[in-house]
Amino acid sequence: MKHVDPTDISLEIAASTFAALGSEQRLSVLRCLVRAGNEGLSIGELGQRSGVTGSTLTHHMKILAQAGLVTQKKQGRSIICAAVAFDAVHDLSNFLLKECCADSTSPDKDHDHG
Asked: Which of 31, 38, 69, 99 has the highest Cβ tally under 10 A?
């Protein structure tokens, strides 16, 4: 019986998640949130830092949230905060690197991603 790692993501999920990142603006938004760390940013601050504001930012955040890459929550009455779903980003990275050099006849010792 094959052991399935619960952190493994399927090809379909990875493709869908990468598709969500297929926009310069969404990638910029995610990058700003990664830089902000676990605290995340208010939507206003995220807009200032990323240069994406208003309904466009709302649209991009919705796509990133649907892909599981960001989380949003209300703080207080109206401030909406956004943060990276670091586990999801990590899983996506692992999807690419998990089998690094697996088919190489001379694996590079500097590529220890496992």
From this structure: 69
User: Whole-prediction pTM value?
Assistant: 0.80
Q: What is the pLDDT of residue 5?
A: 55
Bridge-partner residues for 80, per DSSP? 74
In 10 A of CB 84, how many CB atoms?
24
Tokens of 106: 């001379």
Mention every residue, 6+ apart, whose C-beta is less than 8 A from residue 64: 20, 26, 29, 30, 70
Q: Residue 77, exposed/middle/buried by CB under 10 A (0-12, 13-18, 19+)?
A: exposed
Angle, helix 54-66 to helix 43-50, in steps of 10 degrees: 100
Q: How far apart are CA 59 and CA 47, in angstroms?
A: 12
> Closest Cα to residue 8, out of 93, 71, 100, 66?
93
CA 101 to chain CA centroid, Å, is 24
55-110 pLDDT, tens digit per residue, is 999 999 999 999 999 998 887 765 678 889 999 999 988 888 887 777 878 766 66
